């Protein structure tokens, strides 16, 4: 036997190992090129006003534009806020849902405008003692018209924008629109009619679940898992999108809430207007 001649069996074994290793190497290369699926977490722990709405919308835009973000969890602990900023965030959520699932996780509270956003999600979780609801509208009227000698204006409502009865008509219109948002968003899951939904009550999540305002009692980690299931992804990671999008920590709602004589923020708005906002009753009396 010629010892210099290669061993045929060894060559066959080597070629077999190469054919087995090649798919593995290619798989590792492909895995390295394809980013790990991300469940983006957007937190709203404030009233909904100009800054907080802008921050949330920027995070929604980021999630919509990044293919690795496969779904979003909107984590809420908010009393609501202005009508216009709530609607702005809601409309962006609907755009996001066209391509990616959105799951809500309610921590302490999703009241009024914050529940408005909840109704724009695919699925909603809340902790058993979270406060949910307060569906409706509140109007903070301006002071009675006065005469200012150093201010010249045309028209009786130039300084105030509209007569007081206009506020009432606007509030009624926004209230009905709010109900349509809830009715459309919850669909067959809603177990109560407008007399209950629009009563303005704020319920513990266990009661809100019975009414059909949320889908399940659970934590934020449950919401992340549900979002991954809806997006049909595994081996994912949850990422806080605020740190990727916003350049600095979020300020408090300075300028939105009124202040006490000592300079402390109070839980009702500083300016007259129409709001989707929960104000604790005892604090309304103090005002």
Short note summarizing the structure:
With 287 residues, the protein is of the alpha/beta class. It has a single domain (35-286), classed as 2-enoyl-CoA Hydratase, Chain A, domain 1 (Alpha-Beta Complex).
Per-chain topology:
Layout: H1 8-33, E1 38-44, H2 50-65, E2 69-78, E3 80-82, H3 83-97, E4 102-111, H4 113-118, E5 123-126, E6 131-133, E7 138-140, H5 164-186, H6 194-197, E8 202-204, H7 205-211, E9 216-217, H8 220-231, E10 237-240, H9 242-245, E11 257-259, E12 265-269, E13 273-277, H10 281-286
Parallel strand pairs: 1-2, 1-10, 2-4, 4-5, 4-6, 5-9
Antiparallel strand pairs: 3-13, 6-8, 7-13, 11-12
Helix pairs in contact: 2-3
Describe this structure in words.
By secondary structure, this protein is an alpha/beta fold. It has one domain: 2-enoyl-CoA Hydratase, Chain A, domain 1, CATH 3.90.226. It has 10 helices and 13 strands. It has helices at 8-33, 50-65, 83-97, 113-118, 164-186, 194-197, 205-211, 220-231, 242-245, 281-286, and strands at 38-44, 69-78, 80-82, 102-111, 123-126, 131-133, 138-140, 202-204, 216-217, 237-240, 257-259, 265-269, 273-277. The strands form 3 sheets. Strands 1, 2, 4, 5, 6, 8, 9 and 10 form an 8-stranded mixed beta sheet that branches. The protein has a 3-stranded antiparallel beta sheet with strand order 3-13-7. The chain has a two-stranded antiparallel sheet with strand order 11-12. Strand 1, helix 2 and strand 2 form a beta-alpha-beta unit. It is elongated, with a radius of gyration of 27 Å.
């Amino acid at each position: 036997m010629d010892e210099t001649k290669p061993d045929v069996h060894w060559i066959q074994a080597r070629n077999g190992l190469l054919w087995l290793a090649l798919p593995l190497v290619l798989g590792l290369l492909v895995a390295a090129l394809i980013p790990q699926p991300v469940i983006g977490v957007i937190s709203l722990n404030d009233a909904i006003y100009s800054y907080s709405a802008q921050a949330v919308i920027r995070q929604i835009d980021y999630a919509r534009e990044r293919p690795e973000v496969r779904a979003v969890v909107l984590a809420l602990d908010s009393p609501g806020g202005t009508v216009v900023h709530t609607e702005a965030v809601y409309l962006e959520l609907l755009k996001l849902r066209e391509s990616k699932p959105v799951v809500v996780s309610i921590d302490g509270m999703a009241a009024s405008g914050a529940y408005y956003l909840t109704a724009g999600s695919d699925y909603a979780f809340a902790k058993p003692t979270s406060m949910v609801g307060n569906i409706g509208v509140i109007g903070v009227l301006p002071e009675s018209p006065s005469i200012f000698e150093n201010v010249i204006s045309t028209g009786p409502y130039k300084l105030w924008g509209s007569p007081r009865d206009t506020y009432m008509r606007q509030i009624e219109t926004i209230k009905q629109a709010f109900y349509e948002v809830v009715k459309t968003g919850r669909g067959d899951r809603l177990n109560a009619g407008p007399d209950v939904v629009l009563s303005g009550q704020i319920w513990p999540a266990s009661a809100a679940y019975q009414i059909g305002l949320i889908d399940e009692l659970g934590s934020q980690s449950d919401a992340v898992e549900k979002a991954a299931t809806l997006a049909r992804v595994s081996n994912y990671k949850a990422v806080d999108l605020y740190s990727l999008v916003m350049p600095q920590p979020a300020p408090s709602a300075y300028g939105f809430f009124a202040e006490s004589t000592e300079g402390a923020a109070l839980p009702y708005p500083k300016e007259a207007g129409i709001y989707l906002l929960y104000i604790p009753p005892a604090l309304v009396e103090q005002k």
